[in-house]
Amino acid sequence: MARMSEQPARWTQATVYPDMWADPDDDPRDSEASPEGELATLLDFLSGYRLTLRMKCEGLDPEQLARRSVPPSTMSLLGLLRHLAEVERDWRNWIREDDLLPQLYGEPDGDFHGAVADQAVVDAAYADLEREQSAMDAELAEHPDLGARLGKDRTSVRELMVHRIEEYARHCGHADLLRECVDGRVGQ
User: Fold this and answer.
1) What is the 3-state secondary structure (H, E, C) of 36-102?
2) What pTM, to 2 d.p., does this model score?
3) Is beta strand 155-156 parallel, antiparallel or unpaired with respect to 149-150?
4) N or C: which end of the chain has fewer CB within 10 A?
5) Cα–Cα distances in Å, from 83 out to 74, 103, 111?
6) CA torsion 48→53→54→55, rounded to 10°?
7) What pLDDT, in 10s, does the model give residues 4-53?
8) Closest among 185, 122, 186, 182 to 2, alpha carbons compared
9) DSSP 185
10) If you count DSSP H runs as helices and E runs as strands, how many of each does the chain have, helices first?
């Protein structure tokens, strides 16, 4: 597997702010309307970070998506997609009383170790992520009270929502650096 050793030139499609991923008028994450209420705000931020992650992966082939950063890290954009699918599934386990769901990718770090440059693996990663996001969203939609405590550990819905946003935000930061190392594209 190739590593990110060559240094691509920095580039952007944006014309207004050259260090941004997209011009403000072309950015699908920007909207004029501000969400009303705490739950709507949390969901809006989560949606924005999910979209950002997908934007960071757009236009790359399987080899580029699977390209790892620097040894000994196993991190890649494809690994992040798989990792976040695994994490979405794990969050569902947080709110269950019993009957825990098995890991998607088996052994510890299987999400990153199995991120190989194969179109079938890429397609499966996107499908897994979409399925696990939808399933978690559906389960949490049944609990609109942010103060409700769920699962064996009695985690509040609010804490879980904030944790989800934090997880995506942190990994979007990783994705910024990974993408720039792959082809020089800068992001926001």
Assistant:
1) CCHHHHHHHHHHHHHHHHHHHHCCCCHHHHHCECCCCCCCCHHHHHHHHHHHHHHHHHHCCCCCCCC
2) 0.86
3) antiparallel
4) N
5) 11, 11, 5
6) 80
7) 556 676 656 666 666 666 766 766 667 677 888 999 999 999 999 999 99
8) 182
9) B
10) 6, 2
